[in-house]
Amino acid sequence: MTRISFLHGAADRIQAAAQWLQQAWADRRAVLVFVPDAEQAERLDRLLWTQPALSFLPHCRIDSPLAGETPILLADTLDGALQENCLLNLGNTLPATFSRFEHLVEIVSIDDADRLPARERFKFYRERGYAVDSRDISGGL
Q1: Cα–Cα nearest to 45, from 30, 55, 60
Q2: 1-24 pLDDT, tens per residue?
Q3: Residues 22, 75: contact at Cβ < 8 Å?
């Protein structure tokens, strides 16, 4: 059964996602990032190229020719996902095929437009018996 982690209280969802991905990469975990909003995807892409300051996180879009050998993939759809270990959901809807992943991570900001749909997803997971870990990241990851 999919393990689900809610990281809530982020001041900036995309910035928090970039920081979380730094940790995931340090642990050498492959991650599929579901980011359906094009502006957010572009912002995250830029952050992954520039943070940490003297490095970058190896990533690309899922439709890149390098996707098969890149550990962090950005996708606006989950169709044709190349890996099923970890899914980072940066959308405000329930990822249609989340249950095929071993671990689902939801990063939730303090913005109501983000927080309120996340409450519904949290409730959905819990009602279906998924173990949901919830952690406040307002003080940082």
Answers
A1: 60
A2: 899 999 999 999 999 999 999 999
A3: no
Q: What is the pLDDT of residue 96?
A: 84
Q: What is the pLDDT of residue 21?
A: 95
Q: Which stretches of 27-129 are DSSP H helices?
A: 38-50, 112-127
Strand partners, 34: 75, 89
The packing angle between helices 13-26 and 38-50, to 10°, is 50
Neighbours of 1 (CB within 10 A): 9
β-pairing, 72-75 vs 59-61, is parallel
Cα distances from 107 to residues 9, 65, 82, 100, 114, in angstroms, run 8, 28, 22, 19, 9
Is the alpha carbon torsion for 48, 2, 91, 139 positive or negative? negative
Instruction: Sketch out the chain's domains with CATH numbers.
Output: 3-136 (3.40.50.10110)
Q: Are 88 and 107 in contact (CB under 8 A)?
A: yes
